[in-house]
Write a structure and sequence with these properties.
With 549 residues, this protein is α/β, with parallel strands linked by helices. It has four domains: 52 residues, Alpha-Beta Complex (Molybdopterin biosynthesis moea protein, domain 2); 108 residues, Aldehyde Oxidoreductase, domain 3 (Alpha-Beta Complex); 146 residues, Molybdenum Cofactor Biosythetic Enzyme, Chain A (3-Layer(aba) Sandwich); 185 residues, Spore Coat Polysaccharide Biosynthesis Protein SpsA, Chain A (Alpha-Beta Complex), CATH 3.90.550. The strands form eight sheets. Strands 22, 25, 26, 27, 28, 29, 30 and 31 form an eight-stranded mixed sheet that branches.
Length: 549
């Protein structure tokens, strides 16, 4: 192909390489000049134009793109219409993108003007999603090089170079195990998340089974699901599996199964177990699978549903690209995703305190609990004073019900933000409070206004436990192994907390990010003592507090 300016007398049949206005007429890029065009341009006084002139053996861009697309299109994929040297390849159905990276590289090395762009191998795709695009960069390429690229594209497996492996519908069984203290709402939420995950892959979740977290109960549940025709079994334990000899793997073995692999280099998803009972695959999943976020469980489920073999070797090859941890709901800004430098001993973090004080105090009756005097001052003033003494700046009080009275009770040493939608649930107050935290804060204490025995020392211990370098991003107080409040949250979770809805706080996020939680033991019951009812108020008084309503 020749490219460049030519006298107008030699331009008939040539292709314009730039869109431009010539002789008062607008010509599009790629327009082939005919005799009328030449006459019009000559009359306008134009003497030369920049064109592409095809030579023997040249294949024009659209024809070349269409031919390579035909050679590369495999099962489950259709080619679009060629235009400006481009043809897109679309998925005919949902599934996993299948391709050979080495062959794609070989095609792209044939000629700089012949390009093939694809998704990653085994990327999940939906019907009609673009899985690859072919772009011929110049206006034409040589027949010789195009033939080489076509041959490379055809030199692949029977399914074709670019294909989509469809999911095979199947019946999936779910076993959840239970331990004392695990809320029913966690089990219900997990069932919903798993059901959505399975149905999105074209399969059906059978009636879930909940059993005690012991070997005999899990063994019996496995026998029941296998006997009822389950084609895949998922197990989510109340306690994480930490060894091949732990309760869940032992139960699978007792049921006649084989543990094929324990663990995977994907985070979240490290503590995943791949097993099998006969022809029925089993995935014992970690607590992160209770969240709809992407994790190692998704990678394995997608492969199993698409009938792609999975074994220990495949799992151990998932490390590159397997770090999902820094994607709570979308990729974090680089400054937040990167590890922070370890703080100098002499420096201290800047943090805020958010005191939730918008509720209607229904359990206390006609009295607003936050206004009750405890040891000489309103109950919620204790929370404000403790936060300020611990070094929180700012101390943010979220008001809602009786805002003027609550603000007066809190004193003038706080920042007040009002939640006009407080009757829609706790999540709305959390959202309003987070919006007031300065960008310079490393994190925030989320505190309740009805915990008057929590003092500055409790808060200091929580803040001191925050260490991003060690992965200590959520600091939870405990007393004799039981978790309480307040909780210190690294700011990278603010977006997740702000997206919550309804009358729920951020507690379930602790389960989603269990490996980023550090428990901070306390020496008394203050972190477990919220005064939200007349009975709780009586207990507070019985323990020596001076109470005045």
């Amino acid at each position: 192909m020749k490219f460049g300016p030519v006298p107008l007398s030699q331009a008939e049949g040539a292709m314009l390489v730039h869109g431009q206005t010539l002789g008062g007429h607008r010509y599009r890029k790629g327009h082939v000049l005919d005799a009328d065009d030449v006459t019009r341009l000559t009359t306008a006084g134009i003497t030369d134009v920049t064109v592409a002139v095809f030579e023997a053996g040249d294949i024009d861009e659209n024809t070349a793109a269409s031919r390579l697309a035909k050679a590369a299109t495999g099962s489950g994929v259709r080619a679009g219409i060629a235009g400006t040297g481009r043809v897109n390849l679309f998925a005919r159905h949902a599934g996993l993108a299948m391709l050979d990276p080495a062959t794609v590289d070989r095609i792209n090395r044939v000629d700089e003007g012949i390009t093939l762009s694809t998704l990653h191998p085994l990327d999940r795709v939906e019907a009609e999603q673009v899985v690859a695009t072919i772009k011929i960069i110049p206006f034409a390429v040589s027949e010789t090089n195009l033939t080489k690229a076509e041959a490379a594209a055809r030199d692949t497996e029977e399914a074709g170079l670019i294909s989509v492996r469809a999911y095979r519908p199947r019946t999936v069984g779910l076993i959840q195990t239970d331990l004392p203290g695990l809320p029913d709402k966690v089990l219900a939420k997990t069932e919903g998340v798993v059901r959505n995950r399975i149905e999105a892959l074209g399969s059906t979740l059978s009636a879930p089974v909940t059993v005690q977290h012991d070997l005999i109960a899990i063994d019996a549940a496995l026998h029941g699901l296998v006997g009822s025709g389950a084609e895949l079994i998922l197990i989510i334990g109340a306690s994480a599996t930490t060894d091949r000899r732990d309760v869940i793997p032992a139960a699978i073995t007792k049921a006649g199964g084989i543990i094929e692999h324990f663990g995977m280099p994907v985070d979240p998803g490290n503590l995943t177990v791949l097993a099998r009972i006969g022809d029925v695959p089993i995935l014992a999943l970690p607590g992160s699978a209770r969240s709809p976020r992407l994790g190692g469980n998704d990678l394995l489920l997608e492969r199993i549903m698409a009938d792609i073999p999975v074994d220990g070797t495949h799992i151990m090859g998932l490390g590159v690209g397997g770090l999902f941890k820094e994607i709570p709901s979308r990729p974090l800004p680089r400054t937040h995703a990167a590890p922070r430098a370890r703080r100098q001993e002499a420096s201290s973090p800047r943090f805020a305190a958010i005191i939730l004080a918008a509720g209607q105090s229904r359990r206390m009756g006609a009295v607003n609990k936050l206004l009750i005097k405890v040891d000489g001052k309103p109950m919620m003033r204790h929370a404000v004073d403790a936060a300020r003494e611990a070094g929180a700046d700012p101390v943010i009080v979220v008001t809602g019900h009786q805002p003027d009275d609550v603000q007066a009770a809190a004193g003038d040493q706080a920042t007040f933000v009002h939640n006009g939608a407080f009757d829609e649930g706790l999540s709305t107050s959390l959202r309003v409070g987070l919006s007031a935290v300065p960008a310079s804060c490393d994190g925030a204490l989320i505190a309740l206004g009805d915990m008057p025995k929590v003092g500055a020392e409790h808060l200091r211990r929580l803040v001191a436990a925050h260490d991003p370098d060690k992965g200590h991003l959520i600091c939870v107080p405990t007393r004799d192994g039981k978790r309480g409040n307040p909780v210190f949250w690294d700011r990278r979770f603010f977006e997740d907390m702000a997206s919550l809805g309804g009358d729920v706080g951020a507690k379930h996020l602790i389960g989603d990010y269990e490996d980023l939680v550090v428990e901070v033991p306390m020496s008394d019951d203050a972190v477990l003592t919220d005064v939200d009812s007349p009975a709780a108020l009586e207990r507070l008084a019985a323990n020596g507090a001076k109470v005045k309503i």
